[in-house]
Amino acid sequence: MTSRRSYKTDESFLEKISIGAIGTRRVFDDLFQQGHHPIELERGSTSFKIWKTIKIKRIRVPDILCLHCGRRVESRAKTKLEITMSHSFSNQERGWDYGLEDDDFVALAVCQRVGDRPVDWEAGSLVQYVSVRDLRAAQRAGQTISVEPKGAQEGFEARITWPSSVASSVGTIARITPEYLQYKRQADHRTITLSLSKRALSLRPLVQEGDVVAANQVLASVVSVMTRFPCSTTATEQEYIAQLSSSSLSERYKASKALSYFNSVDSLNALMHKMADDKDHIYVRLEAASSLARRSDERGISFIANCLSDQYLENRLEAVIVLGEIGGQAASRMLMGTLRDDKQHPEIRAGAAWALGELREKSSLGVLIESFAAIEEEIRVEAVRALAKLAKKFTPEIVDEFSRPGQTQRAGMAWALSKSAQFSVEQLRRALLDDDARRWVAYMIGTQDPQSYVGQIELLRQDDAEVYFAVTVLWQIMNSWVYGLEEYG
């Protein structure tokens, strides 16, 4: 039996992943609004998906690349605005700036909770940027504060902070002296005083008297902080082609991904050459193959297909995830074949189900429903979650399958249809074939918002009074104040 402690650890990890993904999405939107052309550079940086069994050790790169200017941005989402990074003094690959270049930026976004679930977070409108060059220079000059870890909860890593003073709310800068700055809070006109020194380190004001400031805005710091940086639109296809031969692994990876957005013969040949380079990192080669596959190039598709039988499970899983990004009939066929292959590792098959959910192709309905009979729970769980995504688009088709006489996989279909909430009572009336179907029809309707279905429920009373009664009882229970009440202590 899974312990409560283990469950809480998983939930806490999902919360951290969610905050990071939501923050990265906000940075992505902010860059787009500034005129950049952002693309996801680090795979999965905008996703909530957690792979529990197979751990993929990806190439360390920033989260976002601007295709036009070539600038890379590492997103750091915070629940409290501080310029701070986790760091290891003993492991270079866990250093705060590993894989970053001086010309890169670190983006800071603040997230706040908007619900009870681990994924219920929202990023604020303000995004602030600090250059990696400035952060490194301040660290070399001794302008940072290092805090050693307290235990395993912090991952046994230190934390480096670049001291700063931050506005807690909207206001106007009233006064700046060598020792402090003051701003008048808009809500109550109270004057807030912030020191311009921390731990004997002097902070440089980043605002002027009379400036209107936003909540969570950095007002003073040991490094420069900006809310925008211009897109120079100087990065060219030929530069990305040249970077495929760079001595830097992260540069080669970046170029392999960026060239999927160009369509010349030169870039195609360069990608082919890189994909065939068996001395390079497999993920650089896989990214080159992905860029070719996006052009429907059979050589790229064939390379990814071969990766599905790689000796290393992490490479197989990465190939599955890549197929979920590429899309198209070839990708769908390979994913369906992987999901059906009972010789594959269960998490690879589960990953294929997840990827099919991302693609939302009608052709995958059958294989997802088949997968509800899998022995491994992780496969069934990912398949039903994927079907729930498809149910928003293909409700009639799933209802038809649910209504088939002798159907044995109704539980998964009922859950997926319930989550999508796109069905009508009229559609479900023909599904009242046997006791099993009747129970799941009651479940599907009874788990919906009564206000959305109360006008349709009389149709059910005419067909099946028992199911009608079950639905109304479920509504009464699920809308009671004790439903979902937790007991602690």
Please give the structural blueprint.
Blueprint: H1 4-34, E1 38-40, E2 64-66, E3 72-78, E4 84-87, E5 105-113, E6 121-131, H2 132-140, E7 145-147, E8 158-161, E9 164-166, E10 171-176, E11 180-185, E12 191-195, E13 197-198, E14 201-202, E15 204-205, E16 212-213, E17 218-221, H3 237-243, H4 249-258, H5 265-275, H6 282-293, H7 298-307, H8 313-326, H9 329-340, H10 346-359, H11 365-370, H12 377-391, H13 395-402, H14 410-420, H15 425-429, H16 435-446, H17 450-453, H18 457-463, H19 465-478
Parallel strand pairs: 3-5
Antiparallel strand pairs: 1-2, 2-3, 4-8, 5-6, 7-8, 9-17, 10-11, 10-16, 11-12, 13-14, 15-17
Helix pairs in contact: 3-4, 4-6, 5-6, 6-7, 6-8, 8-9, 8-10, 9-10, 10-12, 12-14, 13-14, 14-16, 16-19, 18-19
Termini separation = 20 Å
Strand order of the largest sheet: 1-2-3-5-6
- Show unreliable segments: 1-8
Based on the structure, what is the oligomeric state of the protein chains?
single chain
The tally of beta strands, per DSSP, is 17
Secondary-structure-derived class? alpha+beta
Number of helices: 19
Mean pLDDT, as a whole number? 92
Sum up the structure in keywords.
globular; four-stranded antiparallel sheet; alpha+beta; 489 residues; disordered N terminus; OB fold (Dihydrolipoamide Acetyltransferase, E2P); single chain
Overview of this structure, please?
The chain is an alpha+beta fold. Among the domains are: 1-157 and 224-234, no CATH class; 163-221, RNA polymerase II/Efflux pump adaptor protein, barrel-sandwich hybrid domain (OB fold (Dihydrolipoamide Acetyltransferase, E2P)), CATH 2.40.50; 392-489. The chain has 19 helices and 17 strands. The protein has helices at 4-34, 132-140, 237-243, 249-258, 265-275, 282-293, 298-307, 313-326, 329-340, 346-359, 365-370, 377-391, 395-402, 410-420, 425-429, 435-446, 450-453, 457-463, 465-478, and strands at 38-40, 64-66, 72-78, 84-87, 105-113, 121-131, 145-147, 158-161, 164-166, 171-176, 180-185, 191-195, 197-198, 201-202, 204-205, 212-213, 218-221. Strands 1-2-3-5-6 form a five-stranded mixed sheet. The longest helix is centred in the first third of the chain and has 31 residues, at 4-34. The chain starts with a helix and ends in an 11-residue tail after the last helix.
